[in-house]
């Protein structure tokens, strides 16, 4: 009647169809749970931020032709409970602290990342960091930060086992003014 190959194709087709429907159900039900927990805007407190701006001469820090480039680092306190972002479909949550500030008219808004962390377990999702140092030294596309004001925010990316990536950020922000270059009385502009 039917060959072994035809039977295998029929069974494989049914298994793949069932797997797609189960994956769709898993993704939609986990998204519904996250939306009910208002995952896009969870509270977080960013406090006691201290920024330091220095001059770097290395290409790895944005310098070109051995001319100095302003680099900024921060130390901060952070308190956040992001355990609501975890459910049975969450593989990991990528959490990062960003600063957004105005730039040139051709580049209206700049965004840099100072710190990040990958959280894989719900038990590790309560962040209580004291005097944490930034993971990255950042520089601007312009020559100087020129004591610009920046808005610090905690943002995250939920990476599920099945489904699409989801992004969110904390409700409030912390306003920061980039300082003058450390160890120099005047910064180049």
UniProtKB/TrEMBL annotation:
Coiled coil: none
A GO biological-process term: signal peptide processing
Domain of life: Eukaryota
Membrane topology of this protein: Single-pass type II membrane protein
Protein's cellular compartments: Endoplasmic reticulum membrane
InterPro entries reported for this sequence: SPC3
Name of a matching Pfam family: SPC22
CC annotations in GO: signal peptidase complex
Assigned keywords, A-Z: Endoplasmic reticulum, Membrane, Signal-anchor, Transmembrane, Transmembrane helix
Keyword Transmembrane appears in the UniProt entry: yes
Keyword Repeat: no
Entry's family note: Belongs to the SPCS3 family.
Function text: Essential component of the signal peptidase complex (SPC) which catalyzes the cleavage of N-terminal signal sequences from nascent proteins as they are translocated into the lumen of the endoplasmic reticulum. Essential for the SPC catalytic activity, possibly by stabilizing and positioning the active center of the complex close to the lumenal surface. Essential for viability.
Protein name (record): Signal peptidase subunit 3
Gene source species: Kuraishia capsulata CBS 1993
Top-level taxonomy: Eukaryota, Fungi, Dikarya, Ascomycota, Saccharomycotina
């Amino acid at each position: 009647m039917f060959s072994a190959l035809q039977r295998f194709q029929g069974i494989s087709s049914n298994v793949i169809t069932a797997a797609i429907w189960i994956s769709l159900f898993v993704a939609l039900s986990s998204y519904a749970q996250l939306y009910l927990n208002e995952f896009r805007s969870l509270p977080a407190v960013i406090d006691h931020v201290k920024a330091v701006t220095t001059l770097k001469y290395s290409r790895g820090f944005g310098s070109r032709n051995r001319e100095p480039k302003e680099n900024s680092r921060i130390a901060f306190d952070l308190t956040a409970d992001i355990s609501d972002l975890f459910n049975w479909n969450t593989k990991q949550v990528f959490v990062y602290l960003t600063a957004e500030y105005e730039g040139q008219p051709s580049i209206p808004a700049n965004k840099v990342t100072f710190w990040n962390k990958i959280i894989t377990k719900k038990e590790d999702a309560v962040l209580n960091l004291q005097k944490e140092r930034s993971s990255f030294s950042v520089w601007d596309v312009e020559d100087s930060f020129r004591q610009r004001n920046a808005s610090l925010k905690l943002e995250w990316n939920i990476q599920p086992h099945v489904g699409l990536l989801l992004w969110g950020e904390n409700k409030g922000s912390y306003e920061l003014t980039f300082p003058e270059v450390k160890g120099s009385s005047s910064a180049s502009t």
